[in-house]
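Figure 2 data, in text form.
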Amino acid sequence: MASLGDLPREVLPIPDSKSVSLTTYDAKDPDTKFPPIRPLRPPTGAPNVFIILLDDVGFGASSAFGGPCQTPTAERLAAAGLKYTRFHTTALCSPTRAALLSGRNHHTVGMGGITEIATSAPGYNSLRPNTCAPLAEILKLNGYSTAQFGKCHEVPVFETTPIGPFHHWPTGSGFEHFYGFIGGENNQYYPALYDGTTPVEPERTPDEGYHLMADLADKAIGWIRQQKAMAPDKPFFTYFAPGATHAPHHVPKDWIAKYKGKFDQGWDRVREKTFARQKALGVIPLECELTKRPEQIPAWEQTEERLRPVLVRQMEIYAAFLEYADHHVGRIIDSLADLGILDETLIYYIVGDNGASAEGSLIGAFNDKTAGEAPDLSTPELLIQHIDDLGSRKANNHYAVGWAHAMDTPYQWTKQVASHFGGTRNGTIVHWPNGFKAKGEIRSQFHHVIDVAPTILEAAMLPAPTFVNGVMQEPLHGVSMAYSFDDPKAGERHETQYFEMVCNRGIYHKGWSAVTRHGNLPWVVVGAQPSLADDVWELYDTTKDWSQAHDLAKQMPEKVAELKRLFDLEASKYNVFPLDDRKAERTNPDISGRPQVVRGNTQLFFPGMRRISENSVINIKNKSHTVTADIDVPEGGATGVIAAHGGNFGGWSLYVHEGRLRYHYNFLGLRHFDVTSTEKLPAGPHQVRMEFTYDGGGLGKGGTATLYVDGKAAAEGRVERTHAFFFSMDETMEIGCDVGEPVSPDYGPRGNAFSGAIKWVQIDIDAAARDVDHVIGAEERFQLAMARQ
């Protein structure tokens, strides 16, 4: 490692130095001497760093690793760099991202699951402790420019409000610039975006050619060019995590057309062909065996023949989405080459934050939330009816489990299943011509996503700090991969690694792997789980059995016991206990114990409030509630949205349509319910209210919606089904408009703002609010609302 120079970099921020030279009276005195001011920079020779992290891409999807989805950019980087074939993630997105950006195991930084199912337990609370400063912060405090583009799924859901706190957002976590989205997924045509912490809307519409993937690439290219134009001697750290290819699988039609007919043979045959290509490429050894398809996943020949065109279409769309994402990554790579800095940039291309996603059900989904909210509606008939909508803004589609399993070839299982390599092994490419001589080679040392941060620090000739912002730091958990760059036969240094996700557990130690898959399948989000005591552990010798094909547990029970004990020791060290196998239940903060943004039974909103995340809004699901607004209707009548929550695949909206008050409930984009006042709203001030009386008797039941104008009933109607858990993972709430894809088909995504004036909007879920049947003044209502808060 080169000299660190005269700067003490173990303690960050680096203290400012003070001149102790002779103090003169006149600056023109010949004895006046001050050292030149030099901006903070990392040690000479520190590379630019560019991390690409794709989403929900299995080991067997990308053509760079033998898959059927063409990824020429990945192949190009691999031809001039290295393929790592035993690189591992955590099996789920938030945990992988938190581990990648901190260099620590995911439970240590509070990310034992996605943020939406965080609990109050230390390993699962979604709160990165200040003893684990993120990589971006370390690099920034050492003189790097830092920027993040795309998905950030590490912000606790109770901190995703317009007022923060923002210290877990990208710009509070070491990134000087952020353009992207907060959460697990996003609509590729109408995304919920932030510039820093400010919500912004895309400048173009889908009809004008907008797609999020292209937008993110444009913004990354622009930032890198500006950074190098302004400070060419200052290296950058750019983290590009576009969210592709997470559902919804949205991609332009001309890209889908490229794969027409390529998957007609079905997922079993695709898996076999991928396996053969993988051996030919050398990304798996010749003696590797193709693991058996789990009995819970149907064979292609068992699928309904009438449904096969839809299933094929799902995979054509997914493959196009992956190639489209890789294409736009390639545009950024081209921009680095144009600037003449490609060879001096350390690039990590991590092809997936976990295995391929099996969250789309056994037949796929028109709306990927249907599996949890209304599995009875996700029928072959629905998919057949909407086959031409898949991939477009009219669908929120996800492919079938069989395709996910095929995209994880040659391994068992998928995303969420941290016990098996299908959930955790992701092809990774490292490209750095100025940093190592090897080109087009394969590396098979065992590595994990926590190894990226120490590798970057070693490449930048920077120490892992002992103190950051006055707080003593926990040591990094990973090991640098640099030892393997130019030595394909180097002994692996990452010898032990635990895995855990919703109680799917595994332990790797010096070639041995002991694992247990627990409970419900990845595509099942609701339902009782079996006892942890019933879990059966499997044993694999991966020095001889590359793909975990032969379980040795019955032959070697002593080895199983030894590794189970090691798992418990590692789990204790890194905050894995207590084990928690709950899924949908944890979305409810009353059960999970995480903080809630809204307390009590009332929430007050004001005009202009927008992009309010679902977890920042009072939870009205499965209960009676009211929505009340104080408005002014202009002369000539009003039009537009008073309040809306959700989007075109689920939510509700209270608005004025053709002069009449209307309430629209959108159930999964599959059922629409309207209640409309019989008379138009006259000009002047009015109090309008929607009162919803829930039927009760379980989750997601129906109810009666009644509209009131100035305390008088104006209309009544039925809402036969309601959302039990989520309206959306990406759509939000707005007052005075509905941004993104609209909840109601009565109005478009633009130009739907309320034409009158809104003083306030209030949501109540207590009985007292439902019993208010008289008009009260705005000031009285405001005071009542504040008292209830």
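Caption note: The two ends are 58 Å apart (CA to CA).
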